[in-house]
Specification:
Blueprint lengths: L4 H9 L9 E6 L26 E3 L6 E3 L3 H4 L5 E7 L6 H10 L20 H8 L9 E4 L4 E2 L1 E2 L15 E2 L22 H17 L2 H4 L1 H17 L2 H6 L7 H7 L3 H15 L3 E5 L24 H4 L4 H18 L6 E6 L3 E2 L11 E2 L3 E7 L6 E3 L1 E2 L6 E3 L4 H11 L7 E3 L5 E3 L11
Parallel strand pairs: 1-9, 1-10, 4-14, 5-8, 5-9
Antiparallel strand pairs: 2-3, 4-13, 6-7, 10-13, 11-12, 15-16, 17-18
Length: 434
């Protein structure tokens, strides 16, 4: 079975953790939000460090957040803050890969390229080890493929094989008449005819022994079978039918791409999808004023401290509270873990251009909903949110926590394309778990 004696003994000693959630919604804030201007404000710090924004009280006594997050302030009793996320990758591509896979890249290189030698996405690992039921795709990622020059790795199944790729699409859920071409049959091609074509293809594959000779071909075979299953599934089509949502609900999330993407995430986990990844933006942002991600350092009033109150923060303050409320009202919050994080934070020192630069040494991630202690803070950053003072957390530790909450042992090994065993996670944060 491929188990050496030491690994067999380990398997006998280890029991899988009990699943505390059914689904994860991973809200990836591409570009890197500033910890000091959102959830880990330091009002007592010097002028060169503290945020130009004020802090306000929250639903948790003694806990404050940015003044431009008044709605989130009233939901912080649902949230566990991890204030000591830390690593050393200062480039978006490398840090993004680390955040999306839970594994350090081979180098801190902005030119890091997607490769089958790199780790898969979280959702693909979940699909591989604990696939979803009910005919739903186990993992869905949208509405962007993120890049910073080149495509950031860890957005697909990598060496696990195409059959474990997330269902990915780039159609805008905020568009009128939003639908996925992937879930629509070609005009004039009925389902029974499609099934006959598929059966004929399988006969040809078997006769040529293609499936016996090529693991990659087997992956494609399973991928196509899953695709046909989705094409013929009313459950899948209903989950993606945003038009069936009442107008008041859609307005509550905000009529933005990100807002409607988060609403769709609620619909998907409600239908049985295990891992949903929503990307805030396809680009890091830079000097763009009303689009892009959280990389808002720049000039000409495009800096975070001039424009973020018109874009990133108000979108966040509308959409994230709407998602938490909606999940709670539908009885889904106890079974769903919501993760809000970027690839790194921002420098404590505000530079001469009145901006903060990349800072992976200490930043904040939010966990809310099932399996975590709401209204809590894990880890303590120093007086300037520059370094962790207590309980540093690396991305692999967060990965281990996500897997554990889903009932997957983070010590589980997967095999790369050279058949080397690789552990999927680090150390789970037991103090975070409820």
């Amino acid at each position: 079975m491929g188990l050496s004696l030491p690994r067999l003994l380990h398997a006998e000693r280890t029991t899988a953790p009990t699943a505390r959630v059914r689904s994860v919604i991973f809200l990836f804030q591409w570009g890197g939000p500033s910890q000091l201007d959102t959830f880990d404000m330091k009002p007592g710090a010097p002028d060169t460090v503290r945020s130009p924004y004020q802090s306000i009280a929250t639903s948790v006594p003694g806990l404050s957040v940015c003044e431009h997050l008044p709605e989130m302030a009233q939901r912080m009793h649902h949230v566990c803050q991890i204030r000591t996320m830390t690593h050393t990758m200062k480039n978006h591509a490398s840090a993004g890969y680390y955040a999306l896979s839970g594994h350090a890249p081979p180098s801190d290189d902005q030119r890091l390229r997607d490769s089958l030698d790199l780790y898969p996405a979280y959702g693909s690992v979940v699909d591989h080890l604990a696939p979803a039921e009910h005919g739903m795709p186990p993992s869905v990622s949208y509405p962007h493929v993120i890049r910073d020059g080149t495509i950031v790795p860890a957005q697909h199944a990598s060496f696990l094989g195409k059959t474990h790729d997330p269902l990915r699409f780039q159609e805008d859920p905020n568009d009128q008449g939003f639908s996925l071409p992937e879930l629509q049959l070609p005009t004039g091609l009925p389902v029974d005819r499609l099934a006959r074509r598929r059966a004929l293809q399988q006969i040809v594959d078997q006769q040529t022994k293609l499936l016996e000779l090529s693991a990659e071909a087997r992956g494609f075979d399973e991928y196509y079978a899953r695709a046909i299953s989705m094409l013929t599934s009313d459950r899948v089509r209903r989950a993606f039918d945003l038009g069936s949502e009442p107008t008041r609900v859609r307005e509550r999330y905000g009529r933005t791409t990100y807002g409607q993407s988060c609403l769709l995430a609620r619909r998907l986990v409600e239908a049985g999808v295990k891992f949903v990844t929503v990307y805030f933006s396809n680009s890091i942002g830079g000097r763009k004023i009303n689009e892009g991600g959280w990389d808002t350092h720049g000039f000409d009033n495009s800096r975070m401290y001039k424009i973020v109150d018109k874009y990133q923060l108000p979108i966040t303050d509308r959409t994230l509270p709407a998602l938490l409320d909606d999940l709670q009202q539908r009885g889904l919050l106890e079974d769903t873990l919501v993760v809000w994080m970027g690839e790194f934070g921002r420098t404590p020192i505000i530079n001469k251009n009145a901006s903060r630069d990349h800072w992976p040494q200490c930043y904040t991630a939010l966990l809310a909903g099932g399996g975590v202690q709401g209204g809590s803070v894990y880890g303590k950053s120093d007086a300037h949110a520059m370094y962790p003072d207590e309980d540093p957390v690396q991305p692999e530790d967060l990965a281990a926590t996500l897997y554990s909450l889903l009932g997957i042992d983070p010590a589980t090994e997967i095999y790369d394309r050279n058949h080397r065993p690789l552990v999927i996670g680090g150390r789970p944060l037991h103090k975070v778990m409820a």
